[in-house]
Amino acid sequence: MVFQGDVSATCPNNSAVSLTCVEKDCGERVRSSLSTFVVGGNYVQDGTWPWMAAIHYLGYHHCGAAIISNQWLLSAAHCFDLLKHKAPYKFEIIIGTVNRLQPGAGAIRVRPERIIVHPEGKFDTQFNSNYSYDIALVKLPYRLNFTDNIRAGCVPDAVYTPLPKHCFIAGWGNTDADHNSYPQTVLKEAKMTPVNEATCKASNLNLLRNYDFDRVFCAGYGNGYIMGCGGDSGSPLMCQDKFGRWNIQGVLSFGGSGCNRDGNFLYNVFSRVTHFTDWINGVIGSE
């Protein structure tokens, strides 16, 4: 761990210097993004988002996830709890590559040791679910050795702060809502703008009326053409902080009935990671 902060000789208004303890190498990467706008996004190269992981279920792409430490990944609870057969050995995690079907040298394919969904999340069926707690942790059977293509994204402090105007989502999901659309072989990224609660609810009040926006938030452009789609669930929304580190601020939960076409809900809904930081740290610390 290292200390980072703004240190000066004097502080105004009788305030004190504040130091933040952060994971030394989290949120750092060797390549920059090319995307201006993974519906409507761009393909990326190895090392662009080195904490991205693909989750396969019974041999097929299923969801995304983000590495947050050398043995833990963060994803969405419904990626696991909506399945009838959800034993860890039925899943495979692909790490360290943007091409999930033809991983390059140094990539890892591993089955999880444990899957822990938030205890308040109930996902008995797609229509009887509590997506306000749509977050899960995946434990690997061994510790990863970090490389240029395998690193951890940062988990933000459990403090609400306004999100920046531009963040990024990345994933291997479909690029169209059409049933003939398939998950992407190569990772795509898209720039996304977080929107406020009123804007999001106005897009579909019946769907979002009872959601607690302390636990979730929306992002997108309201056009249905730049957003996460099927197979992108569990993928992170990544925002850069003032230290230049990339924080996992959101975990894709649902949304986007448009999905590259007109629809009745044109934003993605993310679990707000800052609300769950204490739970994440508690689970990891107890293992």
From TrEMBL:
GO terms for molecular function: serine-type endopeptidase activity. Residues 38-285 form the Peptidase S1 domain. The keyword Disulfide bond applies. Keywords: Disulfide bond. Coiled coil: none annotated. SMART domains: Tryp_SPc. GO terms for biological process: proteolysis. It comes from the Eukaryota. This is Chymotrypsin-like elastase family member 2A. It comes from Lingula anatina (Brachiopod). The gene is LOC112041854.
